[in-house]
Every structure is written in structure tokens, then in C-alpha cells.
Specification:
By secondary structure, the protein is mostly beta strands. The chain has one helix at residues 48-57, and strands at 2-5, 8-15, 18-26, 30-38, 62-70, 75-83, 86-93. A hairpin with a 2-residue loop joins β1 (2-5) and β2.
Length: 100
């Protein structure tokens, strides 16, 4: 499924039962900007440095969703967290545990 909004095209697709989203933006021409891959964090644990960060900074929070984001110059995880009584939050973090 594809969507066009303003100057962005988004394509949703599956590869080997894994959901992906790819984005292109229009400057002079359409340029790929990023791809997001759904991460099954139950079957594939997050890198140890990220686990350590979450256990320290977000103890008691529940991971709701994880995507691996790839751009031409970077790769990082987008992690959605939730905790009862608090607003949901999203963090962007590299595999070495440093925030984007």
C-alpha cells in the first residue's frame, strides 16, 4: 500500500513476514529518505546496551513497539514505551545505547 502526503511517499510492504515502511521525499526529484523495519523484540532481543539503557532510564515501562530505522547516514531503533498513568513516549536510540 502506498500513500502520498504533501512531499512524501510512504510504501508499506512485507518481506518474509516482517513489516517494512519505506519513505521518499521530493526535493528536485523523489529521494529515498528512510526505511523502517518492524522488530519482533520478543523473538529477537534488543542489543544489550539498549536493554541496559531501558532498565536504567525506563524501569517499569513496557515496550509497546520497536522499529529499526535505516537512513543513508544512520541506523537506530525507534522504541515506543508505555506505563500506566503516564503519557506514552518514544525514544530513538543507537544499538550502542546512545540516544539519537
Amino acid at each position: 500500500m502506498s500513500q502520498i502526503k504533501a512531499n512524501t511517499i510512504k510504501a508499506d510492504f512485507y518481506v518474509e513476514n516482517t513489516e517494512y515502511e519505506a519513505y521518499w521525499t521530493k526535493d528536485a526529484s523523489w529521494q529515498w529518505s528512510r526505511t523502517e523495519k518492524d522488530v519482533d523484540f520478543v523473538k529477537n532481543p534488543l542489543p544489550a546496551a539498549i536493554q541496559t539503557y531501558l532498565n536504567t532510564e525506563y524501569a517499569g515501562w513496557k515496550i509497546d513497539d520497536v522499529d529499526l530505522v535505516q537512513t543513508s547516514s544512520d541506523e537506530f531503533y525507534e522504541i515506543s514505551l508505555e506505563m500506566s498513568g503516564k503519557p506514552d513516549t518514544v525514544i530513538f536510540i543507537h544499538s550502542d545505547g546512545t540516544l539519537v
